[in-house]
Amino acid sequence: MASQDNSSSYLKIIKIATPMMFANLSIPLLGLVDTALLGHQENAVYLGATALGAQLIGIIFWAFGFLRMGTTGFTARAYGIDNHQAVYRRLLEALGLSVGIGLGILLIHPWVLEPAIALLSDTSSELSGLSLEYASIRIWAAPAALATYAFVGWLIGLQQMRSVMWILVTTNVLNVLFDYVLIVELGLASAGAAWASLTAEYLGFLLGAVLVVKKLAGLQILIKAPEIDWTSLVEMFHSSRHLFVRTLCLLFTFLFFTSQGALISPETAAANAILLNLLALTAYTMDGFAHAAEALCGRAWGAGKRSAFVEACKGTSVLAATMAILCTLILLLGQKPIITIYTDLENVLLAAQKDYLWLAFLPLIAIWCYQLDGIFIGIGHTRTMQNAMLLSTVVVFLPVWWLTRSLGNTGLWATMSCFHVARIIGLAYPFSRIMRRQWGKRLDISMFSV
């Protein structure tokens, strides 16, 4: 009987996680299409300008990722106690905050984008000018993009992964189609890529609104202005602040890693770009189980059901670990063909191969960061996430980088691995204490066994 229960639990998790995997993998696919279309323009500067502009916009939007993460946890916990009015209130709070921040970004962007482009690039005035043009167009998507974060977070909290998949996949497919029309047919180059993304993001927002309204109808919630709950708003503010600080630390580590690699040599910078892209691909794949953990653990925690919570932690973690092993095996067995997809430049190939093993085994470590993040988002302990990330960055990442500088790029990858290990320790120990405080029992490691 226990085996059948485990099988049914795993099937349920796979059903929740699979749509998120497809949705997540559509994101790097869009980047590949952009690269392919712009890489065949007469002037390579358009590809560089789009990459730089997209990086800046990605940093700005990603910094507000708490709009997605925080909304998921709050919604899942309210859903766990069948408090549909609280579910609705969380949606409106997240949506109001998203639109407010988006409009704020639009107000200040004329004074922010140009210095930011100058900070990120030490390049020709032509490339900087085109990057600024791209970013100045894309930035107008801020209200729609951030509101979509709120929609996605809310839907994940309700375990509506198929709806999330449709929003993300549709947005990215439309982006690809608009890219072709504006870049290839109309010849608008990097500006065309920006207009394509802008248009797709607003259409994705409209689709998200339709799917959210449909779900509200399914929950039999009337669309109306609810009473303001100041306690709820304060709780959301504190959670958002913690997740914002956490995200800034994470952004800092990856930007610092990239900049230090660029200081070593252009070949090292190119090699690291390839390896980080592969790391992102594995993260997008494995994140489906972290999203499942957010929804399932959050709902069980909100309902106060320890057995369901333990089952969600165990099931998502076992499947995530299996996926991590699969990712590592694929990376190890396909090393040469995988790298040659990205480049045929001999110096870059050699630089990438030199530190490839660090990348190949990193999913086996990183998966526990993703899973613990998912669990903590679900249960709403965002301060712990913030503190763990701060400690990992200040106490581990920077000191290890300083001590391994003589090792060059190998030292950088060792630093990145230690950073991930520190994140695990920074979350695993508090998790044990939280479990004991919540249910009077310590974390039993056997809960994660198959």
Could you characterize what this model shows?
This protein is mainly α and about 450 residues long. The chain contains 16 helices and no strands. It has helices at about 1-40, 45-60, 65-80, 85-120, 125-140, 140-155, 160-185, 190-220, 230-265, 265-305, 305-335, 335-340, 345-355, 355-380, 380-405, 410-440. The longest helix is centred in the middle third of the chain and has 38 residues, at about 265-305. The relative contact order is 0.11. The chain folds into two domains: about 20-225, no CATH class; about 230-450, no CATH class.
Question: How would the blueprint of this fold be written?
Answer:
Blueprint: H1 2-38, H2 45-62, H3 66-80, H4 84-120, H5 125-138, H6 142-157, H7 161-185, H8 189-218, H9 230-264, H10 266-303, H11 306-333, H12 335-342, H13 346-354, H14 356-379, H15 382-403, H16 409-439
Helix pairs in contact: 1-7, 1-10, 1-11, 2-5, 2-8, 3-4, 3-6, 3-9, 3-10, 3-14, 4-5, 4-6, 5-8, 6-7, 6-8, 7-8, 9-10, 9-15, 10-11, 10-13, 10-14, 11-14, 14-16, 15-16
Total beta-strand segments: 0
Number of helices: 16
Overall shape: globular
Spans of at least 5 consecutive residues with low confidence = none
Terminal-residue CA separation: 15 Å
Overall pLDDT score: 87
SS content category: mainly alpha
Note the beta-strand portion: under 5%
